[in-house]
C-alpha cells in the first residue's frame, strides 16, 4: 500500500464512503447527501491523497492530519472543489449552508488567501492554486496549524486512524510484497 492509498483509505472511512460493492440504497443516500455520485467524490479524494503523498516526503502524520482537515472542512464537496461556494450568487441560492467562510476560504483545505500566505510561499497565491494545489496548505500547516479551527479534531482523527492502521514504509512494503 502506498502512502496515497493509506491516506485515501482514511479519507474514505471518515467520509463513510460506500465500499466497493454498494447497494442501490447506499448509492442513492450518498448522492442525496453529497449531490454527486460516490465515484466523483472518490476520484476527488484520490487526487487529494495523491497530492498530499507527493508533498509529504517522510511526514505521513502531517499528511494524514491535512487529509482529516480537508474532510472536516469540506467533506470534499464538489461545490467547494470547483469554487462555486466562493460565488455570492451560489451562497445566496444555498442559505442553509455556511460554505467557504462566506466566500473567503478556498479549496479542500479552506485556505484564506492574502499577504500572509503570499509571504509564506514567496509569491502571490492565486485562488486557482488554492483549488488545485496542496503545497500552500502543506507549508501553512507546517508553521501555523492553528490557522484551522478544525485542527484539534483533525489531529484526533489522524491519531485514531494511525493507531488502528499504522503507517511505516517497512510495514507497507511487506504488505505490497504479500499482495497477490
In brief:
This protein has 180 residues and is an all-alpha fold. It contains 12 helices and no strands.
Name the assembly state.
Answer: single chain
What's the total number of strands?
0
- What is the end-to-end distance? 12 Å
Mean pLDDT: 89
Question: How large is the share of residues in beta strands?
Answer: under 5%
Number of domains: 1
Structural class: mainly alpha
What percentage of residues falls in helices of 4 or more residues? Answer: 55-70%
Low-pLDDT residue spans: 173-180
Largest sheet: none
Shape: globular
Query: Radius of gyration in whole Å, from Cα?
Result: 17 Å
Please report the number of helical segments.
12
- H-E string: HHHHHHHHHHHH
Task: Characterize the structure shown.
The protein is mainly alpha-helical and 180 residues long. It has one domain. 65% of the residues lie in helices and 0% in strands. The chain has twelve helices and no strands. The chain has helices spanning 3-14, 24-34, 38-56, 60-74, 78-81, 88-93, 100-103, 115-121, 127-132, 135-143, 151-164, 169-178. The longest helix is centred in the first third of the chain and has 19 residues, at 38-56.
Question: What's the SSE blueprint?
Answer:
Blueprint: H1 3-14, H2 24-34, H3 38-56, H4 60-74, H5 78-81, H6 88-93, H7 100-103, H8 115-121, H9 127-132, H10 135-143, H11 151-164, H12 169-178
Amino acid at each position: 500500500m502506498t502512502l496515497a492509498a493509506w491516506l485515501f483509505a482514511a479519507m474514505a472511512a471518515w467520509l463513510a464512503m460506500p465500499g466497493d460493492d454498494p447497494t442501490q440504497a447506499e448509492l442513492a443516500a450518498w448522492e442525496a447527501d453529497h449531490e454527486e455520485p460516490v465515484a466523483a467524490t472518490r476520484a476527488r479524494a484520490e487526487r487529494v491523497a495523491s497530492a498530499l503523498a507527493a508533498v509529504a516526503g517522510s511526514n505521513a502524520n502531517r499528511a494524514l492530519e491535512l487529509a482529516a482537515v480537508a474532510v472536516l472542512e469540506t467533506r470534499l464537496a464538489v461545490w467547494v472543489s470547483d469554487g462555486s461556494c466562493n460565488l455570492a450568487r451560489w451562497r445566496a441560492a444555498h442559505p442553509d449552508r455556511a460554505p467557504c467562510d462566506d466566500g473567503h476560504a478556498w479549496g479542500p483545505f479552506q485556505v484564506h488567501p492574502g499577504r500572509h500566505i503570499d509571504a509564506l510561499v514567496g509569491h502571490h497565491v492565486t485562488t486557482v492554486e488554492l483549488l488545485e494545489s496542496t503545497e500552500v496548505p502543506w507549508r501553512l500547516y507546517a508553521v501555523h496549524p492553528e490557522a484551522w479551527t478544525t485542527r484539534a479534531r483533525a489531529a484526533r482523527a489522524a491519531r485514531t486512524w494511525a493507531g488502528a492502521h499504522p503507517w511505516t514504509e517497512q510495514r507497507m512494503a511487506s504488505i505490497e510484497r504479500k499482495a497477490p
